[in-house]
Amino acid sequence: MAESVPNFNQFDDATKKELSAFVENEQAQQRLNSSIHTFTDMCWDKCVTGLPSTSFSRSETSCLSNCVNRFLDSSLFLVKKIEDQREAAARS
Amino acid sequence: MSFLGSSLGSSSGTASPGFWPSHFQCSEDLLKPTLEDMQRNKELFMASVRNEMALLNAQQLINKCNEKCFQKCVTKPGTSLSGSEETCLSRCIDRYLEAFNIVSRSYTDRLKERQERP
């Protein structure tokens, strides 16, 4: 841990390219993780209403999983609705 | 510093006298990292990025978990945490992590599904 982070500029072009791709990939992973944090936050409030016990009930487990999927459905629905409205507005 | 001295020994004869001490004339090939250095530095760089991401992720999880479990378990803060509050917190932490994993699985399954047949 004591070792400092190597300066990016010291690398040759090929290595720079490789490292850029690597960092981009890590950033994509980070965005995915951020979404998972947001969903967990949201779905915890919706699905885990009582005091936490030693394990989740079946209904809590399925609620959490449904919660993620329905949130994504809602998001798709919303986008589609807005698109439809724009199309309708363009036609009239 | 010993490696500097040894590798500069050969070039010290050509060093021009001047303001800088003669051994200060770093030759180009001394500054240029070797292939192994480069490989090692590349791995160091990647490890530090991975490390930073993991740290960020853990911090986010701990903060959220604390927020949620404090809200659930410590409804009337007393002068210290009671036994039942600690039991609740302990269970809550386990459940929050479990919830995170369930959510993570559901989300990645959904993404995979979309990738396979969009």
UniProtKB/TrEMBL annotation, chain A:
Organism domain of life: Eukaryota
GO biological process: one example: protein transport
Gene Ontology CC entries for this record: mitochondrial inner membrane
A Pfam family assignment: zf-Tim10_DDP
Its membrane topology: Peripheral membrane protein
Domain Tim10-like intervals: 22-82
Gene3D superfamilies (alphabetical): Mitochondrial import inner membrane translocase subunit tim13 like domains (1.10.287.810)
Compartments, record wording: Mitochondrion inner membrane
Alphabetized UniProt keyword annotations: Chaperone, Disulfide bond, Membrane, Mitochondrion, Mitochondrion inner membrane, Protein transport, Translocation, Transport
Function: Mitochondrial intermembrane chaperone that participates in the import and insertion of some multi-pass transmembrane proteins into the mitochondrial inner membrane. Also required for the transfer of beta-barrel precursors from the TOM complex to the sorting and assembly machinery (SAM complex) of the outer membrane. Acts as a chaperone-like protein that protects the hydrophobic precursors from aggregation and guide them through the mitochondrial intermembrane space.
Family of the protein in this entry: Belongs to the small Tim family.
Oligomer and partners: Heterohexamer.
Domain notes: The twin CX3C motif contains 4 conserved Cys residues that form 2 disulfide bonds in the mitochondrial intermembrane space.
Name of the protein this chain belongs to: Mitochondrial import inner membrane translocase subunit
Underlying gene: TIM8
TrEMBL record, chain B:
Membrane topology: Peripheral membrane protein
Gene Ontology, cellular component aspect: mitochondrial inner membrane; mitochondrial intermembrane space chaperone complex
Name the UniProt record assigns to this protein: Mitochondrial import inner membrane translocase subunit
Pfam families: zf-Tim10_DDP
One GO term (biological process): protein transport
Chain ranges passing through the membrane: none
GO MF annotations in UniProt: metal ion binding
Chief localisation class: mitochondrion
Tagged with keyword DNA-binding: no
Subunit structure: Heterohexamer.
KW Mitochondrion (keyword) present: yes
Subcellular location: Mitochondrion inner membrane
Name of the encoding gene: TIM13
Keywords of this entry: Chaperone, Disulfide bond, Membrane, Metal-binding, Mitochondrion, Mitochondrion inner membrane, Protein transport, Translocation, Transport, Zinc
Swiss-Prot/TrEMBL domain comment: The twin CX3C motif contains 4 conserved Cys residues that form 2 disulfide bonds in the mitochondrial intermembrane space.
Family: Belongs to the small Tim family.
Organism field: Steccherinum ochraceum
Tim10-like domain segment(s): 49-108
Function per UniProt: Mitochondrial intermembrane chaperone that participates in the import and insertion of some multi-pass transmembrane proteins into the mitochondrial inner membrane. Also required for the transfer of beta-barrel precursors from the TOM complex to the sorting and assembly machinery (SAM complex) of the outer membrane. Acts as a chaperone-like protein that protects the hydrophobic precursors from aggregation and guide them through the mitochondrial intermembrane space.
Gene3D superfamilies named among the record's database cross-references: Mitochondrial import inner membrane translocase subunit tim13 like domains
